[in-house]
Amino acid sequence: MSKLVSQHFVLDPRPDYPLQITAKRYALDKPTQNDGHSGQGLTLILLHATGAHKEVWEITVLSLLQRVQNIKGIQIEDVFSIESPRESAILNEKELKEHYSEQWPPREYAKAAHIFLTAGVDKGARVDFSRRRLVGIGHSVGASAMFLMKELNPIVNFEIFIAIEPGISLKGNRHTNVASQALTAWTWLRPDVWTSRKSAKKSLQSSPVHSMWDTRVLDLFIEYGLRTHHAAKYDPPFTFNGVTTASTKEMEAASYRSDELVVDSLTAYAEVTQRKPVHVIWGTINDVKSPETRDLLSDTSAGRKPASVRFVKNAGHLVVQQRPEAVAEKILDVILGKPAEVISKL
């Protein structure tokens, strides 16, 4: 069976933009080493949720590419997962403290992704993405950033948009406020320091949130979502050689406070649905969003006109972490143009 292979990229756009941008390119067996491509296949662009990392998609990507291998007439050339610079905590630590200590709006992730996708053939991935058939896929805040890219020039021309549990809602809405309060409380209360990666995994396996994750995705979080604790730099007896989350609680909470989630992103989403096919994927478990919040994004009277709405059963807001292979199946259904299944009111 084919295996997933990757290339890692670091793009340094300073001084034009203060943060370095990291991404990975995925393919089966051996990724293309240059921009040679057939012109017929698709290139998928992935943007992750708050508190996640670019590798969170790997189980989904592997499942998707393996499924596509057996289908005639469809080709995915490669997949790029772009990391929010806030999650690249070690690489951007000084700049994040200096410029973003109290804020992290999704527009910053949009800027970073746009810079990476328009860097040209001499920098970053060294790919001319304007020649590619692009499918944009965003999860939670990653979906917000994906739609906000529409404001930036040159235009990144996505053929299809797929928004997974999009972190988009309406300001002042009662259900939005409840979700924001829950996310904020969880962020400040979540454990974020352990003595080792092994102890972190044992602790997270018993937590109400992480115990629902696919074990392979949890392993990826342990590998890529944690970092050596800051206190490891001190001399004995003051050193602490444990681990902590790459995403700090302060910056994670700051991202939920941004009006860009509930004003700008909703406007951008509505405008994109009127021009391009936008497919929305929800989990059937309403743990963060309510049915009313979900229905806001399908309110045609407000100009929100998704091409389809699909559901992953037995999953909630963190559907990518919980049921990665089911997410791959829904993405493939969109690419193949399969009609969305009819599910009774959830």
Automatic annotation (TrEMBL):
Which SUPFAM superfamilies does the entry link to?
A: alpha/beta-Hydrolases
**Which organism does this sequence originate in?**
Collybiopsis confluens
Kindly name one Pfam family recorded for this protein: Abhydrolase_6
**Which InterPro entries does the UniProt record give?**
AB_hydrolase_1, AB_hydrolase_fold
Q: Which domain of life is it from?
A: Eukaryota
| Protein name (database record) | AB hydrolase-1 domain-containing protein
The UniProt record lists the AB hydrolase-1 domain at 44-329
